[in-house]
Amino acid sequence: MNERMQRHAGFTLIELVIFIVIVSVGVTGILLVMNTVVASSADPMVRKQALALADSILEEILQKEYADPDGTSGETTRATFDDVDDYNGKSNSTFTDLPSSLASYLITIVVDAPAPLNGVTTKRVRVTVSHGKESITLTGYRGSY
């Protein structure tokens, strides 16, 4: 009778199997979340580099003249570009001096025809820089004043 009353401490095999299944499901969920976070952790860097590149190109373009100052159109290199229209339709091939780390970014520039904006004739300049599925477009206006 004394042997029947004595209880053994510990876990049964069924309890251990259930514990292993529950822990496995939890660990799998955590690993899936970590995988998603790690896969998208480079996106902010790509976005920031694209934004900086688009900003510097737009600033370069907007510092040029509204109309061609020398009356000669068709300048072929950045060194000879003297008005915003010279940049229309240009892409990566124009920007050969970029660092090699930015070579994979796609640059597209569109300069729209002159149009009135609040009584001032302006040209809209759109610079789009994309890398993979990330795309940044900055828009600026160059006025004739």
Describe the structure.
By secondary structure, the chain is of the alpha+beta class. The chain has a domain at 44-143. The protein contains three helices and four strands. Strands 1, 2, 3 and 4 form a four-stranded antiparallel beta sheet that branches. It starts with a helix and ends with a strand. The mean pLDDT is 87.
What labels would you give this structure?
145 residues, single chain, 4 strands, alpha+beta
Outline of the structure:
With 145 residues, this protein is of the alpha+beta class.
- Outline, from the CA principal axes? rod-shaped
Backbone structural class: alpha+beta
Measured distance between first and last alpha carbons: 108 Å
User: Residue-averaged pLDDT, rounded?
Assistant: 87
Relative strand content: 15-25%
| Integer-rounded radius of gyration | 31 Å
What helical percentage do the residues reach?
25-40%
Q: What does the main sheet amount to?
A: 4 strands, antiparallel
Give the low-pLDDT segments: none
Task: Report the strand count.
Answer: 4
Tell me the series of helices and strands, N- to C-terminal: HHHEEEE
Total of helices: 3
Q: What topology does this entry show?
A:
Layout: H1 2-5, H2 13-39, H3 43-62, E1 106-111, E2 115-117, E3 120-131, E4 134-143
Antiparallel strand pairs: 1-3, 2-3, 3-4
